[in-house]
Design brief:
six-stranded antiparallel β-sheet; alpha/beta
Length: about 625
């Protein structure tokens, strides 16, 4: 096909999409973009092209490239549902794409439950991002029109509340409109299955293959938005009692004896919801558990879909916790808790006088406050759960294959099972017998009985309870981390990440490492290389194939390289282990951390070089 023919075909696609777009805003956006893409006529022979004409041609080329990207295919429906930048066109998040997705999900559910009564039940939630409520209303409208019972959460609420409702209300599916911690320009669409559509262990979990492909096939059969029936009413808006029930369930495992409440009331907490929807529910949960000294970061306390104080609303990102750590320093707090915008992740900040020696020279750390790595929080929470359930038959701890291996040591030491999984809570939440699961990206499942997903609010509560108990003993979370190092060795994790404008560069970087892996890392010989794309083979039965590589060295160093599932990034997960004597002094443990940090720095440079980053 010639370039002129290709452009003519693209123009036809754009015009057809505009005609079918139910949203005047995105239709007008595409119309304007198409007008910009029209190449200005060349000046008559003998006339010099002036700068304004050159600029117009350049702008037209940019607009054409933008249209080509927006119409490069329907936004892929995968195991994360939908997620992408908002805007007009099939490769963006918009009402037309959401209506098609809801229609496809509805047909999938009707097919799976054909002949059964009552009809499928779906609960729909949404956060405070731009267009989230609109996308949720479109979803319940489409589902209601085909005879599905649609339940809409009463307001913009955290993702864990939706995940709770899927199980609590016996729904066959759940939809959460959110892009979690992605930039402000994005939105997304998570899908959960429950009720009669999936087996017990997976009820209330996010979808996994082959369900995602089956739903995607139904979406692909939607001829047009105009062909999708939509109801103007008939769905049920749930009452605020569903929030009360989530709060009660979250508090059900929290001790309420006077001594426990006294310890809680003595802990001073700084909390930030990162401009998201977690503040009201989280502060209520903490208050009802006895944590009465909770200060919200004022600049980030209310929902704001533009996330004005952070470049990325992700507590993992450098600088994201600066306001919270600064407030904690000023108020003399004991603990910082940070939720991401939909409150399914939780970051923890602590006062660490030794921070500068092994966590780098950033301002907050230099003044004594730092954020815990996700693996540090995972070890603390895992230990806390293991202490309560030690020796319980069938109880299992789980973590993703990119998370620290320390949790397995904790599980074994307490007579509990351990299961590694692929990354993502769609896998972690399905582990049989799960009592605690986590992934290093600040996701923790501490209450799988009620929420089969990561839950930043219940995790924040358990961290606060642990910190309060330690404070009552004159100790801190860092003292407990030192104890874990003495018992299991010092595990220190780090990460190297590279963002790509062209996603083809991601595969190229991983292929470079696959074809020419290093023979040594951190001075230790590489003794094993696992191509995760071929699946893993271990004594637990192995894991399904996933893109990535895992390298192990003689001294226990581990590197896992994989593309991000939610962002255009390659991520390298690094872990080193430094032996620590059971009777090591505080100074000895600090020295071991300094050694581990130096080894991580060397490892980061070596793996970056091997990937060509």
């Amino acid at each position: 096909m010639s370039s002129d023919d290709a452009w003519s075909d693209l123009v036809s696609q754009v015009r057809a999409w505009i005609d079918d777009d139910p949203d005047p805003t995105t239709a007008a956006e595409l119309t304007a973009l198409l007008a910009r893409a029209e190449t200005p006529e060349r000046p008559a022979a003998g006339h010099r092209t002036d700068p304004a004409h050159q600029r117009a041609r350049q702008d037209a080329e940019i607009a054409r490239a933008e249209l080509a990207d927006r119409f490069s295919g329907l936004l892929e429906f995968g195991t994360a549902g939908l997620r992408g930048a908002m805007g007009g066109g099939p490769h963006r998040m918009n009402r037309a794409v959401v209506i098609r997705a809801a229609a496809g999900l509805g047909q999938y559910l009707l097919g799976e439950l054909e002949g059964l009564t009552p009809p499928p039940r779906v609960v729909v939630g949404y956060d405070a991002r731009h267009r989230s409520r609109d996308f949720a209303l479109d979803s319940v409208s489409v589902l209601t029109a085909v005879g599905i019972e649609a339940l809409l959460l009463p307001a913009a609420l955290p993702t864990p509340v939706l995940a709770f409702c899927v199980r609590h209300l016996g729904a066959d599916a759940g939809i959460m409109v959110t892009a979690s911690h992605n930039p402000a320009a994005d939105n997304g669409y998570k899908v959960y299955l429950g009720g009669r559509v999936t087996e017990d262990a997976a009820r209330g979990s996010q979808i996994v293959p082959p369900v995602d492909a089956a739903i995607a096939a139904h979406i692909a059969h939607v001829r047009s938005v105009a062909s999708v029936p939509r109801a103007e009413s008939g769905w049920r808006v749930l009452g605020t009692d569903v929030v009360d029930e989530y709060v009660a369930a979250t508090l059900s495992a929290a001790p309420s004896a006077p001594a426990d409440l006294a310890l809680a009331s003595d802990l001073r907490i700084v909390l930030t919801p990162m401009h998201g929807v977690g503040a009201r529910v989280a502060t209520r949960v903490l208050a009802e558990a006895g944590f009465t000294h909770v200060s919200l970061v004022p600049e980030q306390a209310e929902p704001d879909p533009d996330f004005p104080t952070v470049a990325f609303p992700n507590p993992e990102e450098p600088g994201a916790l600066d306001l919270a750590l600064g407030l904690a320093r000023d108020e003399g707090a004991d603990l910082v808790l940070a939720l991401d915008p939909d409150a399914d992740r939780c970051a923890v900040g602590v006062l660490d006088r030794r921070a500068r020696s092994f966590h780098g020279p950033d301002t907050a750390a230099a003044e004594g406050w730092r954020g815990l790595h996700g693996d540090e929080t995972g070890a603390l929470l895992g230990w806390s759960v293991a202490e309560e359930l030690s020796g319980r038959p069938g109880a299992v701890l789980a973590s993703s294959i990119v998370s620290s291996r320390q949790l397995e040591c904790i599980a074994t030491d307490h007579g509990l099972g351990f299961t590694p999984t692929l990354t993502g809570f769609k896998w972690l939440s399905r582990v049989e017998g799960l009592v605690f699961g986590y992934e290093e990206a600040l996701g923790y499942c501490v209450d799988p009985q009620h929420v089969h997903d990561k839950d930043g609010i219940s995790a924040a509560l358990r961290v606060a309870r642990l910190a309060a108990g330690l404070k009552g003993q004159g100790r801190t979370l860092l003292d407990l981390l030192d104890d874990l190092a003495r018992r299991y060795g010092l595990y220190l994790s780090g990460q190297v990440a590279a963002r790509f404008e062209d996603v083809a560069g991601i595969a190229a970087a991983v292929d470079r490492l696959r074809s020419a892996p290093p023979s040594r890392l951190g001075g230790s010989p590489v003794v094993r290389i696992d191509d995760l794309a071929a699946g893993t083979d271990d004594d637990r039965g192995g894991l399904p194939p996933t893109e990535g590589l895992r390298l192990l060295t003689e001294d226990g160093t581990r590197v896992v390289v994989r593309p991000s599932g939610t962002e255009p990034k390659v991520k390298c997960y690094l872990e080193v282990i430094v032996p620590v004597a059971p009777d090591a002094s505080d100074a000895d443990v600090t020295s071991a951390r300094t050694t581990a940090r130096s080894r991580l720095d060397v490892l980061a440079r070596e793996i970056s070089s091997a990937l060509g980053l």
